[in-house]
């Protein structure tokens, strides 16, 4: 009985759809120090629908996981607020 109940609960939670996600990578030429990475991550995470970001100043890229409803233009506009230039990496 307990196994059946546990299985039912697990099945219920695994069937719940949290929406589709997308991953995008941006190249930001001006992101050349740890403070830049912090600012870029902070700005991107303020966008509704962004799940996570991870920036790297060595290769000047930031990887974003977000809801698929968030447009690439929203990411680029957020970076523009920092007076940085972002390009989507294919």
Quick description:
By secondary structure, this protein is an alpha+beta fold.
N- and C-termini, Cα separation: 51 Å
Strands of the biggest beta sheet: in what spatial order? 2-3-1-4
Helices and strands, in N-to-C order?
HEHEEHE
Q: How much helical structure, as a percent, in the residues?
A: 25-40%
Radius of gyration: 18 Å
Low-confidence sequence ranges: none
Q: How many strands?
A: 4
How would you sum up the global shape? elongated
User: Pairing-aware structural class of the strands and helices?
Assistant: alpha+beta
Keywords: Signal
GO molecular function: metal ion binding
Protein name: Mercuric ion binding protein
Signal peptide: 1-19
Describe the protein in words.
The chain is α+β, with helices and mostly antiparallel strands. It has one domain (about 20-90): Alpha-Beta Plaits. Helix content is about 40%, strand content about 30%. It is built from three helices and four strands. It has a four-stranded antiparallel β-sheet. Keywords: Signal.
